[in-house]
Batch of 2 targets.
Target 1
Amino acid sequence: MDMEFIRNLQGWGYVSMIFFLTIGFYIYIYYLYKSQKGGKKDYEKYSDMALNDDIDDTLVEGKHPQENKKDNEER
Amino acid sequence: MFHWLEKNPFFFAVGVFLVIAYAGIVTILPDFMESARPLKGTKPYTVLQLAGRQVYIRNGCNTCHSQLIRPFKSETDRYGKYSLSGEYAYDRPFLWGSRRIGPDLHRVGNYRTTDWHENHMLNPQAVVPGSIMPKYGFMFKKSADLKTAYAEAYTVKKVFDVPYNQPGMPKLGTYDQAKKAAFIQAGKIVAGMKNQGVKDAYKNGDIKEIVALIAYLNGLK
Amino acid sequence: MQSSNAINYDYTVAKYFTVSAIVLGIVGMSVGVIIAFQLAFPELNNFFGEYGTFGRLRPIHTDGVAFGFTVSGIMATWYYIGQRVLKVSMAESKFLMFIGKLQFWLYIIVVAVAVVSLLMGETSSKEYAEFEWPVDIGIVIVWVLWGVSIFGLIGIRREKVLYISVWYYIATFLGVAMLYVFNNMEVPTYFVSGMGDWFHSVSMYAGSNDAMVQWWYGHNAVAFVFTVPIIAMIYYFLPKESGQPIFSYKLSLLSFWGLMFVYLWAGGHHLLYSTVPDWVQTMASIFSIILILPSWGSAINILLTMKGEWGQLKDNPLIKFYVLASTFYMLSTLEGPIQAIKSVNALAHFTDWIPGHVHDGTLGWVGFMIIGGIFHMAPRMFKREIFSKKLVEAQFWLQTTGIVMYFTSMWIAGITQGMMWRATDQYGNLAYSFIDTVEVLHPYWTLRAVGGSFYLIGVFMWAYNIYKTATSSKAIEKEPQYASPMA
């Protein structure tokens, strides 16, 4: 393996990683807004985690499904 | 897939780590070998110079003085030839600094003398009116730590293959040999100094910090 | 629902770190004020021999505020926010309580050793990583304990989804761990050679490589100590204090990933026109500009959270702290990229414009968030009203004045000196000797030191207010949901 080859490898690695991450990032944006719109997942309600943070407050998304605020109240 | 990541702290952490680690790998690794190569003619520090370099570091000289001449005419006019990567090959740590409260010192050995340093370190304001540098009288009283300097030279030779003892390079040898060499080098500097305390100490087999520091500064070229 | 009426949040460790944030804040900033005056009045250097010079004290200031004040603030808020957004109490796990306390006391020991060793001159000289290897080992242990605490608390959480602040705390933990370990790779010389100072070590990297690793660290230590955890704080404290949900939670997630990815590339902008490879410099410059996007994404999100509620800014001094903090965050995340443009950097590098930039970030953004955050926590931790609203107001205005004095004088000083260094006369010779460019800075350095003193006085007012809140303020029966009660 000569230096040239390693350099090429690094170059390709760099470009493809940037490409991959950029695509991933845009898919993430798309996913966030799609799932909000489609009603699959309400990301905005996660703000409540700071506002209603008493230890007895309703959980936004409990570890067990029956604790979920979504299941209990919304739908 | 994304939501799954948001509630699995372990995989979330792995994801974050990959994203943040990536940049370091791409920027630091590719030229690592090349950047470590010394310039032809660059020599490792002698034990006395290393002792002086340690004095420089211990007193945070690098918080005010840079050692990096940028390739601008205004800088090369003021400080000399711009710095090259290979010149720093034996600098562990690098001492480029981040703020020039005082002038750059990368080539100070070219235009300042032992005598100038002696006067200036004792009372900077007497040499440069308006200077804001602290007085470093204590360096004329404290002894240079040759043992730690030798320990450092020995370590970099052993661990990083720094070419001591090779033709045209500084000799290291055993501690006693290195000490002897340091005394010879220090003798030349002490001969150029006026301070009686430093001269007496040298006669009694003691090298003061100021001597080591001047040896280091004179070697910056 | 859990029937967990008996359980309450346990703020013991948060209180410990609150105390250390206040104490180390006073120590670190006092040293900062001293060295600021030393630049204006150099005789001040000579009082304590080698222990009182600028070069010895400066690392104690920088490390003191970064790893003393700020890290204490990060820990205090983590041990507060962490419990609340995960809806689990430290009291529910004896193990985590033990880890938390152990972390605190070890931290205090490490800080003490670090301060003494720096005063003695035991330094690696690398900025914000000056500590020698024994201190480094201590720091790593403290950090690992914090990791145990974070993931332990997450492990027993009730709320399944991690709130955005927790994301940022996790990132802080991982980022600092990675950066710190790699930048502090060093070989203790005593163990190789068997002689000399056993504290002494030598860096694993040399020259340009050492510089690259150092500024990859130095820049991103700013990211993961001064930015990421502070965003964690504001995403909790501002919504909670104002009662407003985050303007767009989705935007906060996107900014998170953006910041995580982009920040790490920008470190090379500290090395423009140096001897590191040219492509590294260019890339760092470009990524620094891109960095505006995720930074402003967070900042705008935070400001828009206050949409329609700006009246609170008038009535609630804590909201003032938070809003001004995010404004300063916007300012310094715009200023930084500007300085990273190569031609601007040619002028700004090595001048006072750089510390000026650092301080409008640290004083305005970091300091205000920690101060404001602890003000918010105090009534809930101590079950008492904040002792004096008037004092909070006075502190806010005094510190704001101090910051403005600080950065304006440093901007002028930096640009003045940068221009003088490159100025030439009609024949093309340098117009000024170096000392000319130092003497001209005297008034600005004086102004800066006074501005810093104002800020420090504000910190004393904060300390007094918190002390009175904890001891003798009016008790409150029920925990306030939003705005903090103050007398």
Target 2
Amino acid sequence: MRVVRVEGFEDWRREARALLAAEVRPEQVSFQPSEASQDSLFEEDGPSAAMGETQTARITVPRGFLDLAETVALHREERRWDLLYRVLWRVNHSERHLLAVDVDEDVRELLLMEKAVRRDIHKMHAFVRFRKVADEEGERYVAWHRPDHRIVFAVGPWFARRFGAMRWSILTPDGSVHWDTRELTHGPPVTQSEAPQGDDMEELWRSYYASIFNPARVKVKAMKAEMPVRHWATLPEADIIPQLLQQASQREVQMRETQKTSAAPFVPGDHRLEVLAPAVQRCQGCELYQFATQAVFGEGARQALVMFVGEQPGDVEDVKGRPFVGPAGKVLDEALAEAGIDRREVYVTNAVKHFKFEERGKRRIHKTPRGVEVAACKPWLEAEMDAVQPKLIVALGATAAVSLMGRDFRITRDRGVFFPHPRAEALLATVHPSYLLRLPDPQQKAEEYVKFVEDLRLVAERVRELGVAR
Amino acid sequence: MEVQAKLRILADAAKYDASCASSGSKRERPAGGVGNTTGIGICHSYTPDGRCVSLLKLLLTNYCIYDCTYCVNRISSDTPRARFTPQEVVSLTIEFYKRNYIEGLFLSSGIIQNVDYTMEQLIEVARTLREEHGFGGYIHLKVAPGASEELIAEAGKWADRLSANIELPQQADLDKLAPAKTHAEIEDTMTDIRTGILTAKDKTTRAGRRPQFAPAGQSTQMIVGATEAPDAAILTKASTLYKGYQLRRVYYSAFSPIPHADPRLPLQSAPLVRENRLYQADWLLRFYGFQVQELTTPESPNLPLDKDPKLAWALRHRAFFPVDVNQASQAALLRVPGLGVRNVQRILRIRRYHTLRLEDLRRLKVPVERAKFFVITADHHPAGLEWESRKVEKKVKPASEQLLLFDAAQSATNGEL
């Protein structure tokens, strides 16, 4: 057995040509890495076959073989050299079309090796993660990656083409490549502990990764097949995978719950108020109906120009079955009168139709409805807006405003301003009258009351304009 | 609002768009800039739902003046809202790209003010990336139906891919769920995009130098299962779109209940396997020589969920089989359940020098247990089998578990059947 030492593809190519020219059969030769030092006692280290090589005989190298061989050369398996030589030998000995026969054992093995290397290169293009560091010359992007095969020098040019204007380094246990915006250079292997840690953008990247994940579809196996766990250590986003999976099951349950909670199935298709008002008593769209005395529907002028939307009925309203007839209703009445609005000419309702409370001794204390409950009750409010067709909507307090304008609406910031709304010409939000009742400081209470009336005056003014226009 | 908070809202809102492809475009890195495209898409990461992360997929804003019931961003939804400035999107794209997190940007938006204003904002992001940052990475811009021709022409100048969503398979579906949209208008927009692409190609031949216009072509997306439209209607629409507008891809997105949903929508998700079947059928139309009418029957206008559409066709056309892998034409081989496009090419090459046996098919990773009912090889002839027996049908079906593993996420990128 002849042992031939090869370091890389060029070595192999030279040796293989010479061996082929010398008619050395594949069984008679073994290619081994040159760094291997423990030679067998029984084997003679053959001189390089390429030495003293005469003009090589006619050697057939089929189209595509060199590319294939060059790729397979990057594979970590040592037997790749023997395999390549065997195939080259067979091609040159009556099996000219061997490479076209994918199902041949040798060819198949070569193709599998080629595929493994190509995949590894592709995954390196994908999974290298640069971290920005500062050095004497400015910013530099450094990545540490552990490829499966010896591909680090082969991928350098790809990264240079893509990140040409950046200075970067890719470090691996097999060696490293550096780019200074003009030239690629090779360096020694680097261990992961020597690589830079962390980058400011990684937090944002993790946020993005978490946001695009759809917790309703968990496919861990599919993820791991494409993003093998051995690469996770260098992927900043992989840190949060366990956390995302844990939350996924909870989030899905929550999503389903939210979905189920809705008044929609209880809202009649006929949106006339006289149809809606009795129907609301049968609503079980969320769980609040179980505790309240009755549902409290809106009331007022049938074709009111203005619709006032509060939060939910209070203790008094719950018992009487009418909106804004308790203490907060009194404040509203007073303020409306002061602003010059006749309550009989407006329509008054709530974002949530059932009273939500906490029992404390004999008293029932108001409790703010949850977003799910507000959303569940929205179909009633929609139906009321459809029936009344108001020109102006006034949201009293945050619950009503969020129900009508979305979650990032802020009363403190957005009150007293007319906003466009799909259901009316404009919407204005102000505080809920119960807020005024809760303020402990009499002076602050007085000031806030004035502001409340001012907001209502804006409404009155707009009503007059609309009235004239009509 | 902080960029991170906006990113959460606007990435979450964008995930309902199925497309994440970054392939099909070749673009050299501009001198002094960063980024190129090589024609091959790269998935830089995968989320635990098994989907690939290739592009930074964002909405510029999720505020919207439309009220499409199936959309989480419709005006009447109380979803949290946010709006990026074009500059914020530009810098996120550049910073992510430089760290090799992404191949580029996929940017869509809710409609704010009006369609053209919205398009101008999207274009501004793409233009800034290309002109001011020398960005050569991939850009996919969503085109709002009804955008002016000038703006579409401008968008095509900067983007690699443009897409206008057809949304639902039939006009009647739109009337019901998205009254502000019409197929006519959406398809006008597709026409404008096609014109841009064709004009750019024309100029190449005349002047030699190609003015870039959406080199990765145009695509669209259809929501499946939000209305009653059967698969036959969906595939007919897809086929018309492929032919009429030379689309690169039609994406199918199984309707899934969205938060804060409109009561007119179904509470149940469309089965994911339906989405998967549609992708398989789509592949059969584009690469396997099937016609739309062959995939469903008037009696059952939906694709069967329990077997793939190619197998279903084969079982309806038993007289077509068995097919001799050593003799049959490419078109016939493509119809064999278990033989994908690439394996058919391999078989055609190999059989010139080597007679194929069943074992060879196994080496090519053909699912032989299924395919053997339909093929003749040098050592195998299925004629002895009772074709008419129901047993055959049972045997050729992969276990249902495997069916689910072959998820839509993969079939969107790899439709080998």
